[in-house]
Amino acid sequence: MPTSGSCDGAAFPTECRTASQASGYLIKSLANLTVGEIAAMLALIGLESDDMKFKHNVTPGTPGQGTSNMMSPSFVNEYAISIFGASAVAGKSPDEVLALVTPDGYNFGSAPWFYQTKCSASVHDALKSGNDAGWAAYMGCIGVDPNDAHRLAYWSRAKTAFGL
After folding, report:
1. What's the superkingdom here (predicted)?
2. Is residue 7 a part of any domain in this protein?
C-alpha cells in the first residue's frame, strides 16, 4: 500500500488510516492465515480502499458498500449479522448497517471474514502457497478479474514484500 503512510489530503479524513494505525487490527484479523493468504488480503484491501483511505464506496457511491475490502451491501449485511446478530441489523438502511462494521476492529476483519465464509476450501488451498494461481482463485471467489492491471500491481507488491 504505497500511500498508506499518511492521511494528509485524504478526501474522507475520518475514514483514512495509516499503516501504523491499521497494523494492530490487521495483525489480529489475519493471525491464523498463511503468508500467501495474508499477502493476498492486504493486496485486496490496498486496492479496494485506496491504501486505506476509504471505508465506503465513493464511486459510484453504492449505499451500504464498504469496509476495507469494499464488500457489497449484501455481504456487509451478512458480516454485521455475524457480529451483532440479526436483530441489531433489522430495519436499518444499508448505510446504517455499514456504519456498524466500519469501526477499525470490524473494518479490518471484513476481508478475512469474506475469505473464510465465502471462498471454498479449494480456494484456500490454492492461496496458501501465495502463487499467481492462488491469487487467480481468490479473485475468482471475489468475482473480479485477476488480471486487472491495478489488482496485479497490488498483488506484485505484496508478493515482493512477503518474499513470495
Report:
1. Eukaryota
2. no
